[in-house]
Fold this sequence. Notes:
Chain B: Its main location: membrane. Chain B: One of its GO terms (biological process) is autophagy of mitochondrion. Chain B: Keywords: Autophagy, Isopeptide bond, Membrane, Ubl conjugation. The structure holds 2 protein chains of 2 kinds. Chain A is α+β, with helices and mostly antiparallel strands. Chain A has 2 helices and 4 strands. Chain B is of the alpha+beta class. Helices cover 37% and strands 14% of the residues of chain B. Chain B has a 5-stranded mixed sheet with strand order 2-1-5-3-4. In chain B, helix 7 (151-162) crosses helix 8. Chain B is globular, with a radius of gyration of 19 Å. Residues 230-242 of chain B have low confidence and may be disordered. Classes of the chains: A alpha+beta, B alpha+beta. Chains A and B meet through helix 2 of A and helix 5 and strand 7 of B.
Amino acid sequence: MENPGDDRKETSIERDSSIDTVPDKQSTKIDILLNATGNVPIMKKRKWAVEGNKPISSIMSFIHRYLRMDAEDKLFLYVNQTFAPAPDQIIKNLYDCYGSNGKLVLYYCKSQAWG
Amino acid sequence: MANDREVLRIVWEGQIPVRFQVDPDEIDGVQQPENFYLMISRLSYLPLVTDKVRKHFARFVSNEHQDGEVWYDCNGTPLKWHYPIGVLYDLTTSREDNALPWCLTIHFTKFPEGVLIRCPNKEIVEAHFMSCLKEADVLKHQGKVVSAMQKKDHNQLWQGLVCDKFDQFWAVNRRLMEPVGDQDGFKHIPIRSYNEDGTYLQKLIQPTTDSGQKRTVQDLLEDFGTPVRKAAENGNTTTAQG
Lengths: 115, 242
């Protein structure tokens, strides 16, 4: 996440420094699917693997950067087209409760959709 | 659950006596403000009492900061406005030093960026509260009840909380706390298990065990792994359970 625009590692949002170590329970990667909704650009690559112990705000700022949105542009993120998680909610918590078929499905948009 | 009115009322009426002071470094001038005391509902949120606290302290801080965004700390720990006040109290007081009142400091400057989420207005608090209710309903009824509600029902829930109107709130909330259709009870139990550091765990929790027995609070604590000193339910059930 510290390297915006770094697409070399296709399957991961983040450059994973711990890739050669045995992942402990906390740093297990979780597959997420990012869907655009409403008047917002789609992402060429929708499926990403992210660290489960990261907050949802890290995904929001990633999308923000990936789509080169202006700093003042708002971004809303929803779980399964239902509710907006708090920015500090941990991705693993959401995956454990709302994940299906091995991934967590998120929707992003520029204005409130299911809010 | 929605029928246990006396218990619901006792939970609703849970209050904490709070003593507010302003950060001494932010006082502009020689006059020292007196502390400010309030009884605050455990189910409420800090931004909902900010108007009163700000009014008391604003004239003691410099003009440029009087109307800005404020934040609170307890013994140096910044408080997350999006946690219910009762949760914040439980997280910041240990059993040994739970002497009342609960002492908080209000800050008009030095917002701890990256630690707290900004809260520029009360609409943000309302949106957060409604999101919590929706999330809880997704777990309880796959979101069917909250999505069938009208805007005025949502308003009634929010206004019930803001204005401390038990009957107004529960007239709508009872629908969120009952089984729907042929459901026997809730599909899942919305619950969060808070750690001492203020983070929390959430899991998909069924109301019954594999053998069909109703699960107890003890079962849930074991699910989340000890030591779980404090467990608080999320969203809608926070308002039911405190």
